[in-house]
Amino acid sequence: MKHYIFFILLILISSDSERVIGTFEIIDNLNEDTIEIRKDGTYTYKERGDSCWLWNDFTGKWKLEDITLTLFEIQRTLDITSKIERNYFDNSSDSIRINVKSFNEESIGDFKIKYESLINGLPKYEVKTDNNGIIKLPKFKIKSLDNEIVVIGMDYVVYGDTISEQFSIDEKIDNIIIRLNKSPDSINQYYEHKFKYKDNKLISYESPRLSENKIYKKL
Questions:
Q1: For residue 151, what is the enclosing H or E element?
Q2: What angle do CA 201, 216, 14 make, to 5 degrees?
Q3: pLDDT at position 2 over 50
Q4: In this model, does residue 11 exceed pLDDT 50?
Q5: Strand order in the sheet with 161-169
Q6: How far is CA 47 from CA 39, 41, 210, in A?
Q7: What pLDDT is recorded for position 148?
Q8: How far is CA 138 from the centre of its chain?
């Protein structure tokens, strides 16, 4: 008999948590944030403010206790992944030398560099470093711009994620050293976002980033 009662309690607890499963949308004229609560214990929060530059998605695990819904978020940040050193010369040459190496000063060969002018119609280059981690390229001579006449771009992978970076140079730069951190420290930051759940609505009340006292209606 005791085992039978315990089994019924487990079902009631599980069913109670399932009442919050679904998609909720914020009631706010300035954004269209949504929270998707899934049965597998995960969620996706989509921040959709009035500027697309501020849009952001984050995911994690959720827990419902009584009327309190908690969204757990883990945010991973990386230490410095690259450093750029530009060398200026008053009597600059007609070419530029790019040297790619690790933070430990090891040369990185076969590394692709994208090199192009800010002025349309001029050549674009996608070349790779030699075994010594070096590329030599011709300079673009553009009299209409004093600074930032050329953009250099690079993509590299850290912890399985592709990182894209670009920087600009002017015609007085003859030499660039790009140092890549192959093993940056990974730092995990933990956040909790709390809501009150009642009558198919969520009300935010404690969060390090989300606005408080916002109402989310269930769709």
A1: strand 150-158
A2: 45
A3: no
A4: no
A5: 124-128, 112-117, 150-158, 161-169
A6: 21, 20, 9
A7: 47
A8: 34
Q: Write the CA distances from 156 to 30, 123, 130, 186, integer angstroms.
A: 36, 23, 17, 16
Q: pTM for the whole thing?
A: 0.57
Tell which residue, 162, 167, 97, has the closest CA to residue 132. Answer: 97
Supply the pLDDT for residue 64.
Answer: 93
- Which string of DSSP letters, residue by residue, matches the chain? -HHHHHHHHHHHHHHHHHTT-EEEEE--SS---EEEE-TTSEEEEEE--SSGGG-EEEEEEEEEETTEEEEEEEEEEE---EEEEEEE-SS--SEEEEEEEETT--B--S-EEEEEESSTTS-EEEEE--TTSEEEEEPP--TT-SS--EEEEEEEEETTEEEEEEEEE-TTEEEEEEEE-SSPPEEEEEEEEEEEEETTEEEEEE-SSSPSS-EEEE-
The pLDDT tens digits of the residues spanning 72-116 come to 999 888 888 899 998 887 777 888 899 999 999 999 999 998 888
pLDDT tens string 124-180: 888 899 999 999 988 876 554 555 467 888 888 887 778 888 888 877 888 999 999
**Helix and strand tally (H, E) in the chain?**
1, 16
